[in-house]
Amino acid sequence: MVQMILLAGPGVLISTFCLGSALKLTFPYNWSWKTSLLLGGLLSATDPVAVVALLKDLGASKKLSTIIEGESLMNDGTAIVVYQLFYQMVMGKSFNWAAIIKFLTQVSLGAVGIGLAFGIISVLWLGFIFNDTVIEITLTLAVSYIAYFTAQEGVDVSGVLTVMTLGMFYAAVARTAFKGDGQQSLHHFWYALLRLYALLKLLVWFMSSTV
C-alpha cells in the first residue's frame, strides 16, 4: 500500500512536472507552462494492461503485479485532481502556492471523506441483507455511482478519488459484510469491470494518438 501511495501521489506529481517541462521545451507550439503542465498531468495517468500481461508471461511475483495495478487505479484520481488545478489556471484563475496547497487539500481530503462516508453507510446497510448476491452487487454498484455524482457534481471534489476510496474501504474493512458466495461473486463482477475499464482506456489512448 505504501508503494502504491508513493507512486500514485508524489510519483504522479514528479511525472507531471517532467512531462510538462519536456513538452514546453521540446515542442515548437509556444505553449505556456500552465498548458504544458495540464497536458503533462493527463499523460501521467498510466495504464498497466500490457505491463501486467508481460509480467504474467515472465512469471513475475503476484505482489509486483498487484502494486502496478493498484498504482494505476490510484494515479487516475491524482491525475484528475492535477488536471482540475491546471485547467482552472489555463481558464484564467490565478493561484499562489498557498491557494494551490489549499485546493489540493480540499479536493483530495474532501473526496476521501465522502468515499469513507458512503463506505460506512453501505456496509451498515449490507448488515440487513443476508446471502443475496444480486442485491449486494447492485448495492455496491449503485453506491459507487451515487458517491461519484455527489462528489463531482454536488461538492465539486474528485469523483474518481471518491470511488477509489470507497473501493479501498470495501477491500480493507468490509470483507466480512459480504456473506456466503457473495464475496466471490462480487470479486468476479468488479474484476470484469476493471478489465473492461482498462481496455476502454487503451482504446481511448489509441484513438487519441491516431488523430
UniProtKB/TrEMBL annotation:
Superkingdom as given in the UniProt entry: Eukaryota
UniProt key word DNA repair: no
GO biological process: regulation of intracellular pH; sodium ion import across plasma membrane
Main location: membrane
GO annotations of cellular component type: chloroplast envelope; plasma membrane
Domain Cation/H+ exchanger transmembrane: 3-194
Transmembrane segments: 36-55, 107-126, 133-151, 157-177, 189-208
Localisation: Cell membrane
InterPro entries reported for this sequence: Cation/H_exchanger_CPA1, Cation/H_exchanger_TM
GO molecular function, one term: potassium:proton antiporter activity
Keyword annotations of the record: Cell membrane, Ion transport, Membrane, Potassium, Potassium transport, Sodium, Sodium transport, Transmembrane, Transmembrane helix, Transport
Reactions performed catalytically: Na(+)(in) + H(+)(out) = Na(+)(out) + H(+)(in); K(+)(in) + H(+)(out) = K(+)(out) + H(+)(in)
Pfam families in the cross-refs: Na_H_Exchanger (PF00999)
Name of the protein described by the UniProt record: Cation/H+ exchanger transmembrane domain-containing protein
